[in-house]
Amino acid sequence: MSDFKLLITDMDGTLLDSRQEVPAENRDAIGRLMAAGRLFTFATGRNEQATTPYARALGINAPPILYNGAKVVDLRRRETLFERYLPVEEALSALALAATFDVHVNLYIDGKIYVERIDPVVREYMAKDRVTCIEAGNLAAFLRRAQAGATPTKLLIIGDGATLEDLRKCIHARSPAL
């Protein structure tokens, strides 16, 4: 083994197989790594609900990086070590723009996932990531109502590639920094 102290891996297609399971060879390698005194965790776009079962099953010994890097959580102590929020006005702007495209939006606030409505696309997402989404109706209106006590951590926009590319261009034209 080389002289590294920490191994971080992605989940989908790296740690997990196509059935969303950790293959035995990965589980065994992680066990050997941690037994040798190294730290192991994962970095993913997923939230706490989607990652906690894997973290427990593997016995990871370092906090995972969640929400595409927006949050680092000590799952054992249920303590947030780092979190970067989306500015509410920018989230509202992105939601308004996304509403003009044929896409589905997941709004992540306080470890929960809110969607406009539960439909086949959302059901597929919930099954894949093994999470529960909460039907909230119009997400912009929901965020405005919840704004005082809730700040979004992430927006996930689901759609076909061409539509997502068109939306990305529109978002970038409005806010080049995004």
Structural description of this entry:
This protein has 178 residues and is an alpha/beta fold. The protein has 6 helices and 9 strands, in the order E-H-E-H-E-E-E-H-E-E-H-E-H-E-H. The protein has helices at 24-35, 48-58, 88-98, 120-129, 139-146, 161-174, and strands at 6-9, 39-42, 65-66, 71-74, 79-83, 104-109, 112-115, 133-135, 152-158. It has a 4-stranded mixed beta sheet, sandwiched between helices. Strand 7 (112-115), helix 4 and strand 8 form a beta-alpha-beta unit. Helix 3 (88-98) runs antiparallel to helix 5 (139-146). The chain is elongated, with a radius of gyration of 18 Å. The mean pLDDT is 92.
Question: What value does the average pLDDT take?
Answer: 92
Largest sheet, order of strands side by side? 8-7-6-9
Which structural category fits the helices and strands?
A: alpha/beta
Runs in which pLDDT lies below 50 for 5 or more consecutive residues are: none
The rough form would be described as elongated
Topology as a string of helices (H) and strands (E): EHEHEEEHEEHEHEH
Count every helix, treating DSSP H or I runs of 4 or more residues as helices: 6
What is the gyration radius calculated from CA atoms? 18 Å
What share of the residues lie within helices? Answer: 25-40%
Please describe the biggest sheet, giving its number of strands, its sense, and whether it closes into a barrel.
Answer: 4 strands, mixed
**What portion of the residues fall into strands of 2 or more residues?**
15-25%
How many individual β-strands?
9
Distance between the termini: 39 Å
